[in-house]
Amino acid sequence: GSDKGSGDSGGSSGGVDNVTVGVIPIIDVAPIYLGQSKGFFKTRNIELKMEAGQGGAAIVPGVVSNQFQFGFSNLTSLMIAQTKNVPIKAVAAGVSTTGVQGKDFGAVVVKGASPIKTAKDLAGKKISVNTLKNIGDTVTRESVRVAGGDPSKIEFVEMPFPNMPVALDKGDIDAAWVVEPQLSTIKAAGGREVASTFVDTDPKLTIAAYFTSQKLLADKPDLVKRFTEAMNESLTYADAHPDEVRQILSTYTKIDDKARAQVVLPKWPIEINKASVQKLAELGTTDGIFASAPDLDKLLP
Amino acid sequence: MTTAHRGNPVLLGSAGLAGLLLIVELLPRLGLVNERYLPPTSRIAAALADEAATATFWQSLGDTLYAWAIGLLIAVVAGVLAGLVIGSVPVLRALTASTVEFLRPIPSVALIPLAVLLYGTELGSTLILVCYAAFWQVLVQVLYGVADVDPVAEETARSYRFSTWGRVRHVLWPTALPYVFTGVRLAASVALVLAVTAELVIGAPGLGKEIATAQNSDAVATMYALIVVTGALGVVINLLTRTGERRLLAWHQSIRGEVAV
Amino acid sequence: MLEVKGLRKVYSSGNREVEALRDLTFTVDNGDLVCLVGPSGCGKTTLLRCISGLLTPTGGSVKVNGNAVTGPPPGMAVVFQEYGRSLFPWASVWDNVELPLKQKKVPKARRTQLVEEALDAVGLTGTGKAYPWQLSGGMQQRVAIARAVAYEPETLLMDEPFAAVDAQTRADLEDLVRSLWQRLKVTVLFVTHDIDEAVYLGRRVVMLSSSPTVVQDELVVDLPAERDQLHTRADPKFVALRTRVYEQIQLAKKEAAVQR
Amino acid sequence: MLEVKGLRKVYSSGNREVEALRDLTFTVDNGDLVCLVGPSGCGKTTLLRCISGLLTPTGGSVKVNGNAVTGPPPGMAVVFQEYGRSLFPWASVWDNVELPLKQKKVPKARRTQLVEEALDAVGLTGTGKAYPWQLSGGMQQRVAIARAVAYEPETLLMDEPFAAVDAQTRADLEDLVRSLWQRLKVTVLFVTHDIDEAVYLGRRVVMLSSSPTVVQDELVVDLPAERDQLHTRADPKFVALRTRVYEQIQLAKKEAAVQR
Amino acid sequence: MVVLKRILFVLGLPAVLFAGWFFLSEGSESFYSPPLRTILTAFGDTWKPDRLLADVVPSLLRLFAGFLLASLIGIALGVAIGLNRNLRAVMEPVLEFFRAIPPPVLVPVIMLFAGIGDGMKVIVIVFGCVWPVLLNTVEGVRAVDSVVLDTARAYGLTGPARLTRVILPSASPRIAAGLRQALSIAIILMVISEMFASSNGLGFTIVQFQRSFAIPEMWSGIILLGLLGFALSLLFRLAERRALRWYEGLRAAQRRAG
Ligand SMILES: Nc1ncnc2c1ncn2[C@@H]1O[C@H](COP(=O)(O)OP(=O)(O)OP(=O)(O)O)[C@@H](O)[C@H]1O
Ligand SMILES: Nc1ncnc2c1ncn2[C@@H]1O[C@H](COP(=O)(O)OP(=O)(O)OP(=O)(O)O)[C@@H](O)[C@H]1O
Ligand SMILES: O=[N+]([O-])[O-]
Ligand SMILES: [Mg+2]
Ligand SMILES: [Mg+2]
């Protein structure tokens, strides 16, 4: 790696490790920002710096090449990487579902006047997800399946979350699989939730995780250990202090004040719920997202 | 020559921009588009004022401009040099033609993983993408410019035994200069586009990252405000290159018409 | 010495093939002043281009002082028929004249002197700052002549250099060429379509036939070296010579007409 | 009738201001043939461009049949001094000549006839398919002339149209212009720097002074309407006329020199 | 002999570069830059006819539609702007404004008006690649030789004839330069447009490979993209040669020198 900047894991001065974490600037990663401001990392001799990327495309190569020491990604992407033998390993939980029907931070929504009333009605419809062949279509299919519909007939189209309210409004799509804050936006405009997809899949579903490279794990097990500890402390703190979470959002997102007060916050347990991930793995394999079944023992801590 | 009445270009240009602002104000106001997706000019302006009050905004603007300027400089210098050399040596031109055509359409965005691999989200990543995309713009224009040299002018130089450098400096360069300017103007905005796109996709600091954040946060007016800033940068950049062009190309047919009676 | 031997040039672009020169042979001694006349389109420009090394002949050879010409030989200046396009539109009149001198690495002070003198000589004093496209046709042509004059060449090739100037200026320029030739001992090859001019200027006149082109005739102008516009042109010898040239060219044209 | 009244033209581009024409007044009757002579750079081209409506004068007026000229009047053909640049390089010789006729909506058959005749008349039979840049300088100039001739204009403006052709061709073209004029009753304004040509061709000669330009003198050429190259030029009246023109131009130049 | 030389010229440098890449990457351990051997194997396995039909053909259709539209708009607008000084003054800042906006951030706005179908993607392509055509046309029109213009005026070549017989031919070398540049930008934008709201296409497939960590397949896609660009530019060159025969002749005529 380069010697300039904080990107180097070797960049420790006076016992302090400079660590760069690749994150997506969304609500899910609030704990790491909160933990940073609370000093949970500093006390463990970690000088933290966040780099914002648009999803795994930029973050995973960054972690593999040690430009980032840690990254944030959803578990389906991590499992895809694992099946392709990308040398990475999860080190801490990222974000989990609230487990409450109708009150989760991600859901499938339709327009108020839509004839679609339940998840079952989604069969054969056009539904937008942010990334095709990823967690969005897996959990949406599961919701339909659970509701007794035929998930094989759904037409998924890909589009960024921010575009979904428009597309739904204009009728370009029949339903949208969205997360906060767009979920609140659509609901505020009269949209209706028809499936709490994460909850339908598993009420304890772990959706994303923090991960590092196999190499860093081998070279600096101590650093990884300290990061995991700090991360866990941050997650716990965030879970317990929703008001502070809503506050910290203003520092790294541009969600306006009203929306910040209203969005549904996810859960941040420190445990990666292995059973739920296993379910996600099986569903993904059924749907053909994975070439081979992911080896969770290799991926999860 | 009898031309239509000539207005003040600055006034006319401002009128054009004002017209655009008015349209954007009216479209949502008249209900032609939903104002949640395209807010009226006034709301965008308000969001812009809010942004301008933050330090992050100015920091991002600076980051974008820095990446743009460095990237463009490298691309222009490399493009012009390569163009002059390749263009004036027929064998080189023949040898490289296929490779140029092969490399040129590879989108910078397809190189993102490679850039991240090498530089993470540092400036270097943005630079790779900016340089790669802007370089071709300049190169191709210079190649066409070199091909446009008037044979009689070229022969005049040859008959007076101008050195190779003399021919490049006094014949090739002035002929290619109008093309170089078009190339630079194309490259300047492509560089800006790529700088912002790279920031948007990779997350390197800059306006693009702010736009991405605004998009993810559903801050529609803020997103448009930042887009407006990007566009305004383009207008300013064009103004600068135009001024340089008018100065250096006073002799050229295209400019002559403007200055002469 | 300039030797042209069996020169042949065929232009072939696309479907059109034109044999511009068929078989030209003649020599020009160092320090000689030779005028070339011939009907329009007979290949005079082509010949000059071959001699100046700007065009590769299809056959035959051109030698300057024994060396085969493959590119523009040193010390040669050319005034092109397309004067308008041979001036650099991006450079001022002054720069147009000075540029070749810079290339020749003439020192600054000398350069200034040469440019000034040359512009004076062609009657363009004070137009140095103008761009070529701000000048009249005749003035542009004179800039091209000034450029060649300032260059102080050993060999000077001129392709209908006075076509665009008025009679009076033309007479002045003719005298300029002769004085230059006498003063600097420069070898001059001068293309013109004006028979009087050819006879008045030249020490020798080479007449070309119509296309396909060969040397139709050659004559030595045995007029006194000191010539002036009034007396020389009135000289019966002058009149006899110009008549001979005129007849030859008529003949050339007729032959061409018969061949067709 | 063509009326030029108090015509003035000042070029001002950037820092340079040139008063090309100061105050020109003269008229050309319909069906007249007027030659314009004057020193190089005196503003002949400028004048022609003002008359053809291509250049807006700084002062004064140009009227054709009583109508002020603001753009090119219909039925006018112009042969430009910069013949090389006035031909369209992307069109063949034939197309260059035919294009204005198409624009005039001349029927196809007639067009073909006109183009053929015009190319024949200027001695370019069979070059229709070539591109202009495949021709010699003189041939290019003749294409430009053919284009004007084929157009069958009411008014014909020609700016040094024979500068690049050889003496013989020139004589032929002079006769072509005269026969055209007589046959078609076309009004001709002919710029030349060749005094003999002006007197041989014109029914009237207008002489311009050096810059800043006014009409220096005007004379009616009272030679018989039937002229031929041999006898007319030998006519003592011809010689007297040409001497008068020559003197006037000399005078113009001297005055200019004094003014400086 | 001549043909052999041409082939050598066309394939020489690429062959050397590929050979260099092949040997230098041999035995590469890096996950993201696998050996060329692996990539080439992936190329053969990936780009089977049915895949080409499913992914490359829709891409190409959108590409052609976008390029064609951009050419028409660019030339029409460019001629108008190039000929009219006032129009140019009014339009220039607005056009420069839009030119500086990255197509990816405009996608939401374009989706607003054009939905998410092929229309949106074509518009993205048009939006991105119209600029070189426009700029070059404007410059080409402005640079038409003054004597040529005067000649046209004097002979009453006005209106459509002036446009088609004088302005456009004269500006055509520059317009060609613009079109050529637009073509490769169109390919780039074809890819970018398929990164949003798409479910097929070459760009979509490459991004999909990248996301699913199928790195050799991703590289094979990039190579295919290059090949595509190369093939299209060859086609373009052929067309250009035909249309600009006079120009090439004009320039080459006197260049056949020593
Ligand atoms: N680039 C070219 N391509 C094809 N043919 C050409 C080219 N240049 C000249 N020719 C042809 O070659 C012949 C001789 O042309 P050249 O210009 O040498 O004549 P010239 O004697 O200089 O005539 P002029 O006195 O009219 O200038 C002409 O028939 C012309 O058409
Ligand atoms: N575009 C221009 N810009 C500035 N000055 C010009 C321009 N065109 C011509 N002039 C000037 O106007 C004067 C007259 O030029 P013009 O071309 O009319 O002369 P002319 O009589 O045709 O000369 P010639 O016989 O040499 O062709 C000259 O001094 C010239 O420098
Ligand atoms: O190279 N581009 O991705 O525009
Ligand atoms: Mg010639
Ligand atoms: Mg003139």
TrEMBL record, chain B:
TM ranges: 65-90, 102-121, 186-207, 219-240
Family: Belongs to the binding-protein-dependent transport system permease family.
Coiled coil: none
Compartment annotation: Cell membrane
Name this protein carries in UniProt: ABC transporter permease
Keywords: Cell membrane, Membrane, Transmembrane, Transmembrane helix, Transport
InterPro entries: MetI-like, MetI-like_sf
TrEMBL record, chains C, D:
Single GO term (MF): ATP binding
Ranges in a coiled coil: none
Keyword hit for Transport: yes
Keyword terms: ATP-binding, Nucleotide-binding, Transport
Family annotation (Pfam families): ABC_tran
Source species of the chain: Actinoplanes awajinensis subsp. mycoplanecinus
Domain ABC transporter: residue ranges: 2-235
Name under which the protein is recorded: ABC transporter
Superkingdom of source: Bacteria
InterPro entries: AAA+_ATPase (IPR003593), ABC_transporter-like_ATP-bd (IPR003439), ABC_transporter-like_CS (IPR017871), ABC_transporter_ATP-bind (IPR050166), P-loop_NTPase (IPR027417)
Automatic annotation (TrEMBL), chain E:
Family annotation (Pfam families): BPD_transp_1 (PF00528)
Principal location listed in the UniProt entry: membrane
Every ABC transmembrane type-1 domain range: 56-240
Transmembrane portions of the chain: 7-24, 60-83, 95-116, 122-138, 182-206, 218-236
Membrane topology: Multi-pass membrane protein
InterPro entries on file: MetI-like, MetI-like_sf
Keywords recorded for this protein, A-Z: Cell membrane, Membrane, Transmembrane, Transmembrane helix, Transport
Family to which this protein belongs: Belongs to the binding-protein-dependent transport system permease family.
Name of this protein: Nitrate ABC transporter permease
Organism whose genome encodes this protein: Actinoplanes awajinensis subsp. mycoplanecinus
Source species taxonomy: Bacteria, Bacillati, Actinomycetota, Actinomycetes, Micromonosporales
